[in-house]
């Protein structure tokens, strides 16, 4: 039986709308780099009862290559990769969602919008302009953006690769009441993360008193976060208050989004083995500085600092450890655009 004129018109309108939606998505992602499709990673034996692991990351154009390398590194080393769900934060989800789907067609993921206006009035300049990007502060708002059905996440920066099964990090015990877990570095000079004006104030340093332990530096690029406790304790607002002190009252630190985390959590962090954050491979804030690995076993390599491995490799001036990042690079180069590789 032929379609009625009304059904024909509706079908045509739906087809036109779908075509427009596809064109809008394609246009939004047109200025992004081209990436290869990652292989499909399947669960190994014994994964039927594996827990769902939630991982949070950010997406932006400058670091997208690093984010994709991080994703594939997590999947490649997981015994149960199909049990991992990724939660991405981006200022323009429509721009990045097609790129993720194209490179990881079997990946369970969601892309949420992070509104940069939330932090724009709270960000003060730091030692590196890259640290002043609004998206660098998105980790503060994970508990507000990710659905409340997700009670815990592993947050990962976009300049790292995982070379171990992330399930070992996921089972970090946060009981009885820790909000987050991370590798701590108590040999670092904690006082150096804040200005003399902070330490000379009669009130500001008191916030660090009464902690479980003496406050220690920890790197916020790798954290296990209990989002339920974060929400219940109002920790987003606690971090924002220190950002407002810095912006509106007196300059108390120089280093982006890290110091507010130290002020709120240092001394109350659940310690994790250092193997889960071999950080500083980007040479801190010095151009061209190559770092060696820390002593001990390694589960995660983190190019925190100014030097990113993809930039140094492209420039032909890599550090030796950048070769460890290269196998996870999904960038499709110009000579590969018309191949099946």
Automatic annotation (TrEMBL):
Source taxon at top rank: Eukaryota
Signal peptide location: 1-19
Known pathway: Glycan metabolism; pectin biosynthesis
Alphabetized UniProt keyword annotations: Glycosyltransferase, Signal, Transferase
Pfam families documented for this protein: Glyco_transf_8
Broad enzyme group: transferase
Enzyme Commission number: 2.4.1.-
Ion transport among keywords: no
Database matches in InterPro entries: Glyco_trans_8 (IPR002495), Glycosyltrans_8_dom-fam (IPR050748), Nucleotide-diphossugar_trans (IPR029044)
Molecular-function GO terms, alphabetical: glycosyltransferase activity
GO CC annotation, single: Golgi apparatus
Family, per entry: Belongs to the glycosyltransferase 8 family.
Protein name: Hexosyltransferase
Originating organism: Canna indica (Indian-shot)
